[in-house]
Amino acid sequence: MSDITAPQEIEPTALGVDNRKLAVWIFIASEVMFFTGLIVTYIVMRGRSTTGPYPEEVLSVPLVAINTFILLSSSFTMVTALSAIQRGDARGMRRWLIATAVLGLLFLSGQAIEFTTLFRDGASLSSNMFGATFFTLTGFHGMHVFVGVLWIGFVLARAFRGGVTPDNHLAVELVGLYWHFVDIVWIIIFTVVYLLRM
To answer: Is the previous residue joined to 53 through a cis bond, with omega within 30 degrees of 0?
Structure first.
């Protein structure tokens, strides 16, 4: 039976980058194109609604600003988790990964509260072009946050079994890359949808 804590020999690509890291970067590049399409569609279509509710009538910047702060805080906890395992602090890494997952779940809870409020105010996927593009854009982002929380859960399970060490911590680095991407996308969505909504 092989030792799960021993680092695996992985051939780097011609660029000198681990194949798994390159795969995550390629995946993120495809996701950039996906979200660019969603954001551009939102920008073009949000003003074409002929009936309400309109963004300025139903969007709550204070609520979403708190949610944004929660998600941005999770980037700090993710960086701290990676830093901890690089220093050899496996317990600290696990604590910070748990904190990151909890903050991700808090963000999703805030999004659920916002969606419930918007539905109550008459906004939905079928209400108008604003509703269709808004819920598609923010809903897909929420799905990405949920996937990130699940990924963190898998890394934590591996870490609790001793499979993440200072010499073999690529799993934390990879989930961190994805998590920071999700946070950056949210900053753009928050700016475009909530701050530049007029």
So the answer is: yes
* 12 three-class SS: strand
Whether 42 maps to a domain, the answer reads no
Residue 84, CA distances (Å) to 8, 65, 92, 96, 109 in order: 21, 29, 6, 8, 28
Reduced to 3 states, what is the DSSP secondary structure of residue 146?
helix
Contact 126, 133 (CB under 8 A): no
What domain range includes position 121?
61-195
Total domains in the chain come to: 1
CA–CA dist 77, 45 (Å, integer): 36
pLDDT in tens, the chain (198 residues): 444 444 455 555 556 678 899 999 999 999 999 999 999 999 998 778 778 788 888 898 999 999 999 999 999 999 999 999 999 999 999 999 999 999 999 999 999 999 999 999 999 888 899 999 999 999 999 999 999 999 999 999 999 999 999 998 999 999 999 999 999 999 999 999 999 865
Could you tell me if 100 and 92 are in contact, meaning their C-beta atoms sit under 8 angstroms apart?
no
